[in-house]
Amino acid sequence: MSNKGQIWVLLTAIALSAGIARPQDPNGQRGVINFAQPILSDPLLQHSKEIFILNGCVYCHGVDLVVRNGEAADLLHSNLVGQDQNGNLIGPLLRAGIPQTPKLSPMPQFSDLSDSEIADIVRWIHYARQQGRYKEAMEAKDSPRGDAAAGKAYFQQKCASCHSTEGAFSKIGTKYSESELKAQILRPKFVEAPKTLKIDQPRDAKLEAGRPRHLSLLENYTPGDVNNLMAFLQSQK
């Protein structure tokens, strides 16, 4: 890691232990923000979050990947992050760093991080992206009506290997309200199961295989994809 990167990590560690004071409201009241809060129930994700913070990523990218200074890459909408699988794209980028461009600040190289630390940063980036994309989609207003034919084509390409439009699944479009259906498409309930399980908890192989597929779709859905899928599912009677 460069000297700049080492200083960055040191400042972040100090911030974690002491908090960062900044204005909290328009009246100028000041308080302390601890980026590690709230503590997540999944210890693995909490650890990944803290590694992301301790290595300074939070200062440019935000703990929630919402860029607030206008100079960092937008990881929430980055095509590269969306196509990353287990760090195959993000990992090499972290180790090599990114030079400054007219629009973006430079990113220091983290060449001395362990594979485990790289994996933690990657894990947090994907988790935070999934949370952010879900929130964006659910809060979108005045979305245009989707195209059922386009939704059918998307379904056949992305969903049909696991789901069928016959049987009970064919009624999903009428079973839920519009907002509930959108939530089911974006993040089905089984995806919410904790990733860290107790030793006596059995794993469901089918659900374990389906979870990363659904989360990858969540990271890459466009508003049009979601609207088209909803129109297709609602057209199934």
Entry summary:
The protein is mainly alpha-helical and 237 residues long.
Detail the topology: elements first, then pairings.
Elements: H1 3-18, E1 20-23, E2 30-33, H2 43-54, H3 57-61, H4 79-83, H5 90-96, H6 115-139, H7 148-158, H8 172-175, H9 178-186, H10 205-220, H11 223-235
Antiparallel strand pairs: 1-2
Helix pairs in contact: 2-6, 6-10, 7-11, 9-11
Description of the structure:
The chain has a two-stranded antiparallel ribbon. Helix 6 (115-139) packs across helix 10 (205-220), helix 7 packs across helix 11 and helix 9 crosses helix 11 (223-235). It has 2 domains: 43-139, Cytochrome Bc1 Complex, Chain D, domain 2 (Orthogonal Bundle); 148-193 and 204-234, Orthogonal Bundle (Cytochrome Bc1 Complex, Chain D, domain 2). It is mainly alpha-helical. It has helices spanning 3-18, 43-54, 57-61, 79-83, 90-96, 115-139, 148-158, 172-175, 178-186, 205-220, 223-235; strands spanning 20-23, 30-33.
